[in-house]
Amino acid sequence: MRVLVLVVVASALAVACKRERDDAPPATTPAPSPPSTPAPAPAAAPLQVDLGPPEPLPGDKTGKLTVRRGVVPLPKGPMATATIGDEGRYGEDYLFLTFDLDRDGAMELTKLDAPEQFHIFERSVTLDETTYAFSIDPDGASLMLVPAAKRAPPRPSLQPGSPAPDLALSPLSGPKTSLAALKGKVVLLDFWATSCAPCVKALPRLAALHAQHAAAGFELVSLAMPSDDLQAFLKAHPPGGGIHAVDVDDTAQSIYRIDRFPNYWLIGRDGLIVCAHCKLDDIEQTLPGLLAR
Question: What is the DSSP code string of 114-148?
């Protein structure tokens, strides 16, 4: 009798278990996990470059200029660098820093606007596709390179034969224009400041040059650096012919890497740089031939 009861109970449990399975909702397949997002690449670490002892700058006749050299440890390989000092001071805006960008073992230390030469006031440099903000110790003992969040736009070449970088121009009188809009004319860019005596002395000479050659396709673009006395100066010395504007936020000065005044640039009818940091005497001799083309 006990065996029969056990069989009946076991049969009832089996039926109940089957009913539970029949009544249970169908099993679902778990949703696939979303694809994992790759972790961002770690930011490049700042680089501190120790610079060697001061050496006389080759070709310097003043005895005041020195150079300190070092090597930047970049992922793609070491790159030589050098910085120029003046009477023991380094890192001043008017001085220079050079990198051997093509790793050919040669660096141009004295030629203005050489592709491997950077003004200290530029504050950044792109090395092997990474842009770094740079700073130099006042005594030139070390160079610090801090990676930027994104790569800077390409740095324009300012060598003769290169396209002149475009500038938006807002003349003191007349409609807005641009340097690119003047293509087809020979253009003289004049960067000047009221605090620069040679600049002020040259203004009548530039006005006469424009009056003499404007009909042949010559244009003068005179860009004054902002100053507290500029408006009073212009009122006392009304500008002559040409396009006269103020480089309000130093944009033009930064693009053309101007570090001294006056600073003249001659641009051909094709929009290419003919002469950078020209002397006014040379411009007066070159201009007739350019206009005759």
Answer: -TTEEEGGG-EEEETTEEEEEEE-TTSSEEEEEE-
